[in-house]
Automatic annotation (TrEMBL):
InterPro entries noted in UniProt: Ald_DH/histidinol_DH, Ald_DH_C, Ald_DH_CS_CYS, Ald_DH_CS_GLU, Ald_DH_N, Aldehyde_DH_dom
Entry protein name: Aldehyde dehydrogenase
CDD domains with a match to the protein in the record: ALDH_DhaS
MF annotations from Gene Ontology: metal ion binding; oxidoreductase activity, acting on the aldehyde or oxo group of donors, NAD or NADP as acceptor
Phylogenetic placement of the source organism: Bacteria, Pseudomonadati, Pseudomonadota, Alphaproteobacteria, Hyphomicrobiales
Keywords: Metal-binding, NADP, Oxidation, Oxidoreductase, Potassium
Native species: Sinorhizobium fredii (strain NBRC 101917 / NGR234)
């Protein structure tokens, strides 16, 4: 069994109280690593280290081009270690090796992109209406930023936050999920190897009540970037607001996936399966509500069920596996609970609906790919985030009805629809209330394109040029060239 340490101020350290907690392999249920159980004291040390690195030492003296060079070097190191990091993430969270290896090979692009953007952060000279006044703006870093990441894609979602934060000149404290901390601690070794000064990047592991709340409320923390549940995001937002800290919150989703009658049906079916059963449904952007035009409802449903039945459950480290285990025991119980709720509300379970009986899956935390038909959009299975391989199918008759159903939820993270009508592509994309809308595709992401939610799905945007503004503040500088000062009692 591996035993990890935290990275604080350039030093690898045990938790202040010397305690650890176990992390388990979702496929076997076995303990495979011991993680430091950080405390309030550890979190405070990490923030103080990041604050010191931001205000003194070598980091604030580096040019923007120097910061960019370090980021690009980090990207290269991630690429060199992609397979090793991917296997650690699979062992920790149970997601498929095919997906995690894709992510780890793609993650370097975040550090290359924002490394290139670091020295493109510019202010402006403003020709204001005041005579004899020279006005310009500066975009400056915020200070200490905290990134709190979930268990489903730890390093990808960390990169959404860390790359723009460092490019902008901030320092950083990462708090990974207590269920999947190992890959972030392994990643921290690469940050150190890349040559970042001590204290610029710190990792504190532990639980929300001790570590997370301390990081969120510490006086030296300027910003919190969080990906996770709506409930935790609301609490973070409330705590941050007490001291006017900036926040980026990427929260839950109940994304509609719409199939119109003119769609290429086989392509749409592949997209539907990708949207909900890939990643075992454990993604905020999961297309968990399938809206199908009534005239093709039965045909699409039959094809979706037939394809879902072929999904191979098994060892997530095997490249032939298509559906892996659920990451945590609490999440397993939550998913099974929602399946019972859906049955109790009258939804018809046409596929799955239980833990698999296959003995080859052993003690793994698996849930069968599950499909419910006869769903009304008012049902809890259509309104609340399950975060698992559970699909709710809802028929509609008109485009207007599809849009109404799609928007009739508290969430607005993502949406997708399938059609061959270009006018409809533009109309529906404009009408759907979601931060990302996919047309004739699903689960496409890019480091260049902003991601974030409407309504309860969050605040702010990650990725793309827009995201770096979340890690900057603008200062306006006015210099008078006048020979004398006018009446001091009158506003200039």
């Amino acid at each position: 069994m591996l035993t990890y340490k935290m990275l604080i101020d350039g030093q690898w350290a045990d938790a202040a109280l010397g305690e650890t907690f176990e992390t388990r392999n979702p496929y076997t249920g076995d303990v495979w690593a011991a993680i430091p159980k950080g405390t309030k004291e550890d979190a405070e040390r990490a923030v103080e280290a990041a604050h010191k690195a931001f205000t003194s030492g070598t980091w604030p003296k580096l040019t923007a081009s120097d910061r960019g060079h370090l980021l690009r070097r980090l990207g290269d190191l991630i690429a060199e270690n992609a397979e090793r990091l991917a296997r650690i993430e699979v062992t920790d969270n149970g997601k498929l090796i095919n997906e995690m290896l894709f992510q780890l090979k793609y993650i370097p692009q975040w550090y290359h992109y924002f490394g290139g953007l670091a020295d493109k952060i510019e202010g402006a000279v403003i020709p204001i209406d005041k005579p004899e006044t020279f006005n310009y703006t500066r975009n400056e870093p915020l200070g200490v930023c905290v990134g709190i990441t979930p268990w489903n894609s730890p390093l990808l979602l960390l990169s959404y936050k860390l790359a723009p934060a460092l490019a902008a000149g901030n320092t950083f404290v990462a708090k990974p999920s207590e269920f999947t901390s190992a890959s972030t601690l392994e990643f921290a070794k690469l940050v150190e190897q890349a040559g970042f000064p001590p204290g610029v990047f710190n990792v504190v592991t532990g639980f929300g009540a001790d570590v997370g709340e301390t990081l969120t409320t510490h006086k030296h923390v300027a910003k919190i970037a969080f990906t996770g549940s709506e409930g935790t995001g609301r609490k973070i937002g409330e705590l941050a607001a007490r001291n006017f800290k900036k926040v980026t919150l990427e929260l839950g989703g109940k994304s509609p996936h719409i199939v119109f009658a003119d769609a290429e049906i086989d392509n749409a079916v592949n997209g539907v399966i990708s949207g909900i059963f890939a990643a075992t449904g454990q993604t905020c952007i999961a297309g968990s509500r399938l809206l199908v035009e009534s005239k093709i409802h039965d045909q699409v449903l039959e094809k979706v069920i037939a394809l879902a039945k072929t999904a191979r459950m098994g060892d997530p480290l095997s490249t032939s596996t298509q559906v892996g285990p659920v990451t945590t025991p609490p999440q397993l119980e939550k998913i099974l609970g929602y399946i019972d709720i859906a049955k109790g509300e009258g939804a018809e379970c046409l596929l799955g609906g239980a833990r698999p009986s296959n003995s080859e899956l052993g003690n793994g935390w698996f849930v069968e790919p599950t499909i419910f038909a006869g769903v009304r959009n008012s049902m809890r299975i259509a309104q609340e985030e399950v975060f698992g391989p559970v699909l709710a199918v809802i028929p509609f008759d008109t485009e207007e009805e599809a849009i109404h159903i799609a928007n009739d939820t508290n969430y607005g993270l993502a949406a997708g629809f399938w059609t061959q009508d270009m006018r409809r592509m533009l109309r529906v994309s404009a009408a759907i209330q979601a931060g990302t809308v996919w047309v004739n595709t699903y689960r496409t992401i890019s480091y260049m394109s902003p991601l974030g939610g409407y309504k309860h799905s969050g605040i702010g945007r990650e990725n793309g040029m827009a995201s770096i503004q979340n890690y900057l503040q603008t200062k306006s500088v006015m210099i008078s060239t006048a020979e004398s000062v006018a009446n001091p009692f009158i506003m200039r």
